[in-house]
TrEMBL record:
SUPFAM superfamilies: Ferritin-like. PANTHER family: 1,2-PHENYLACETYL-COA EPOXIDASE, SUBUNIT A, PHENYLACETIC ACID DEGRADATION PROTEIN PAA. This is Ring-1,2-phenylacetyl-CoA epoxidase subunit PaaA. GO terms for biological process: phenylacetate catabolic process. Its EC number is 1.14.13.149. The keyword Lipid biosynthesis does not apply. It comes from the Bacteria. Transmembrane segments: none annotated. GO terms for molecular function: phenylacetyl-CoA 1,2-epoxidase activity. Keywords: Oxidoreductase. It holds the Pfam family PaaA_PaaC. One of its GO terms (cellular component) is cytosol.
Length: 347
């Protein structure tokens, strides 16, 4: 057994028109713009960065896209913790590819946030200062290599439930980023399930390790969908704007219904005595997650919050010279291109 290395604590707008050389400025009625925006939303068409949008819509999206981008980047840490101790070359190649995918997801999403006027620097500074959040799940430690399988199966599985509907979200750049991300999440989920299935065909000790890991990750995975609907004040407005298309509780139920048959096929159980099929509802009933634990983790008191943010800060600080060098190189290259063009023109 490899020793765990994830050392966490245990515990108004104007439109200009030009006519006959005279620029005429027409005050466009804000009500009219709002009506156009509402019409686009009701047709389930996309809002694009150049379109007018209510300031609150823009702010809500920046918050959601930033939180999503941060989750992808912070989410590299718990699994990255095991890359150097993968049990075989094949497992190492799979895990490396998966963790790199998550970096890519973060970058697509920061780019989507940029189209709303929020720079990556600004968002990262806010994350490090604790002013923006990331998914609560990444504040739990990875104590064994088995956790790589469980995260792939349950955490990426929950992410898929959350993210597939986002492919049709109302803001264009976010929805298009999600299409590619979802394809990769599907690979993540399958590799996790395949790892666990391989272990279940192994020794008694390996089977016990899978069950122990699933026991730790089940409840935090259910919490990934956010608080219950009656305690989620932003949901209604986000659904009206087409940013969200399903409520937290609807998605949580979908995830439970999807996961139970998979657990049966795998030969593991979930740590919930209240989990049983409800013929009348056509869904599985399940117990209430510990929302006090959820809010404690969200507020910064989970087992790994400090470690995750400190690691991100260290990487950001240590990478400053790379960002400065890349910027200087881009500026010099642009100046060189300009000089060459000027010389050519002078010939
Ligand atoms: Fe991802
Ligand atoms: Fe993933």
């Amino acid at each position: 057994m490899v020793e765990p290395n994830d050392q966490c604590r245990t515990h108004g707008p104007q439109k200009g028109t030009s006519k006959g050389g005279v620029v005429m400025t027409t005050q466009v009625n804000e009500t009219e713009l709002e009506a156009q925006f509402a019409d686009t939303i009701s047709r389930k068409d996309r809002i694009e960065p150049r379109d007018w949008m209510p300031e609150k819509y823009r702010k809500t999206l920046v918050r959601q896209v930033a939180q999503h981008a941060h989750s992808e980047i912070i989410g590299m840490q718990p699994e990255g913790n095991w890359i150097s101790r993968a049990p075989s070359l094949r497992r190492k190649a799979i895990l490396l590819a998966k963790v790199q995918d998550e970096a890519g997801h973060g970058l697509y999403l920061y780019s989507a946030a940029e189209t709303l006027g929020a720079t990556r620097d600004e968002l990262t500074e806010k994350l490090i200062a604790g002013k923006q959040k990331y998914s609560s799940i990444f504040n739990y430690p990875t104590l064994s290599y088995t956790d790589v399988g469980t995260i792939g199966w349950l955490v990426d599985g929950a992410a898929i439930c959350n993210q597939v509907p986002l492919c049709r979200t109302s803001f264009g750049p976010y929805g298009r980023a999600m299409i590619r991300i979802c394809k990769e999440e599907s690979f993540h989920q399958r590799q996790g399930y395949e790892l666990l299935m391989t272990m279940m065909r192994g020794t008694e000790e390996q089977r016990a390790s899978v069950q122990e890991s699933v026991n730790r990750f089940w409840w935090p995975s259910l919490m990934m969908f956010g608080p219950p609907d009656d305690d989620s004040p932003n949901t209604e407005q986000s659904m009206e704007w087409g940013i969200k298309t399903h409520t937290n509780d609807e998605l949580r139920q979908k995830f439970v219904d999807m996961s139970v048959p998979q657990a049966e096929a795998l030969g593991v159980t979930f740590p919930d005595e209240g989990l049983k099929w409800n013929e009348e509802r056509g869904h599985y009933d399940f117990s209430t997650p510990d929302w006090d634990e959820f809010w404690a983790v969200v507020k910064g008191n989970g087992p790994c919050n400090e470690q995750r943010v400190a690691h991100r800060k260290r990487a950001w600080d240590e990478g400053a010279w790379v960002r400065e060098a890349a910027l200087a190189f881009a500026e010099n290259s642009a100046a060189d291109t300009e000089n060459t063009a000027a010389e050519e023109a002078a010939k």
